[in-house]
Design brief:
It contains 11 helices and 9 strands. The chain is of the alpha/beta class. Helix 1 links the parallel strand 1 and strand 2. The longest helix has 16 residues. The chain binds fe (ii) ion (FE2).
């Protein structure tokens, strides 16, 4: 599995607090069949989490310090929160951390409610040459419960990521139902782990995989956890990632 959503870098957000916890997470991911992990530390000014391009070299070297111990491949990335301090003006282009060498960004919607013009904001990010993968859309009822909005987001070329743990009921029932619905409607481009600790891996990867395979063929599961993530790392357009 190529996991495009993970918090392996220690001491920078709500992920592992230190090297030892990060090593436990790396080992658990590797044991669960993850071969490549994108290190998507949170960029959230409201929580004091920086993790933008100014620290990408340091963050990636922290990730390597643990991942190399267990033979896990890591690539850079970030989980970009929709916040005026991140995307308020066009200077965001100098702060964002796309996946690896690609122009794909993992973007997290606000928890407090729908931004006034979500499509417009995403369009503005795209106009600067970026492509958008929406992090765990099942977590935002204002978006995932609105089929029309989801369809318009995808029609506009943005892609949807769902957490495997949501399908396993790792968070709450509402989120599980939303994740299942998105999957059954064929609206999901990528399934990912979003693990923050080694202890998350059982539910968020292992049980999640089992739950997903009740709704998907093995080939479809492979596409959402290997083929599409690889296409994103290869910087393919949305039409190729999610045909
Ligand atoms: Fe995350």
């Amino acid at each position: 599995m190529i996991d495009l959503h993970g918090h392996l870098v220690y001491g920078v957000d709500d992920g592992p607090r230190d090297w030892r916890e990060a090593l436990e997470l790396a080992q658990a991911l590797k044991d669960a069949g993850v071969t490549t992990l994108a290190c998507t530390s949170h960029i959230r000014p409201d929580r004091g989490w920086v993790n933008d391009r100014s620290v990408v070299v340091e963050n990636l070297s922290r990730a390597h310090a643990v991942a190399d111990q267990v033979g896990l491949e890591v690539v850079q990335g970030a989980e970009h929160y929709i916040d005026d301090r991140v995307f308020g003006d066009d200077s965001f282009v100098d702060r964002v951390v796309p996946y690896g060498e690609s122009r794909w960004l993992l973007v997290e919607c606000p928890y407090l409610g729908a931004p006034p013009d979500l499509l417009g904001l995403l369009h503005r990010i795209r106009r600067k040459g970026f492509k958008i993968l929406l992090a765990h859309l099942e977590r935002f009822p204002y978006a995932c419960d609105d089929d029309d909005l989801v369809d318009r987001l995808i029609d506009a070329g943005h892609l949807v990521q769902v957490n495997l743990g949501s399908l396993a009921g790792a968070y709450n029932r509402q989120q599980q139902k939303a994740a299942e619905r998105l999957l059954k409607r064929g609206r999901v481009a990528v399934l990912a782990g979003d693990c923050h600790r080694g202890s998350d891996v059982d539910e968020c990867i292992v049980a999640g995989r089992k739950a997903a395979l009740k709704l998907l063929t093995p080939a479809a599961f492979e596409r959402l956890t290997v083929g599409s993530p690889r296409a994103i790392l290869d910087d393919e357009p949305a039409s190729k990632v999610f045909p």
